[in-house]
């Protein structure tokens, strides 16, 4: 069964994973988010009771 042979794809997978984790990921983490979260609190709404027609 050729799909159980790790020789063709194992090296490619490890190389791509190491490339992403060592080179690309630190560069991507340097970007600042465009919309920073704010500390504004949302107004709380009072829950209202539901008038069920059958009760």
From TrEMBL:
Record family assignment: Belongs to the ATPase protein 8 family.
Record bears the keyword ATP-binding: no
Biological process (GO), any one: proton motive force-driven ATP synthesis
GO molecular function ontology, one term from the record: proton transmembrane transporter activity
InterPro entries for this protein: ATP8_metazoa (IPR001421), ATPase_protein_8 (IPR050635)
Keywords: ATP synthesis, CF(0), Hydrogen ion transport, Ion transport, Membrane, Mitochondrion, Transmembrane, Transmembrane helix, Transport
Cited Pfam families: ATP-synt_8
Full protein name: ATP synthase complex subunit 8
Annotated transmembrane regions: 6-24
PANTHER family for this protein: ATP SYNTHASE PROTEIN 8 (PTHR39937:SF1)
Organism, scientific name: Lepidothrix coronata
Subcellular location: Mitochondrion membrane
Topology of the protein relative to the lipid bilayer: Single-pass membrane protein
GO cellular component, one term: proton-transporting ATP synthase complex
Major location (coarse): mitochondrion
The keyword RNA-binding is assigned to this record: no
């Amino acid at each position: 069964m050729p799909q159980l042979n790790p020789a063709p794809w194992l090296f490619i997978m490890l190389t791509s994973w190491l490339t992403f984790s060592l080179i690309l990921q630190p560069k991507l983490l340097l970007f600042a988010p465009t919309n920073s979260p704010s500390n504004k609190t949302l107004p709380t709404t009072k829950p209202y009771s539901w008038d069920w027609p059958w009760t």
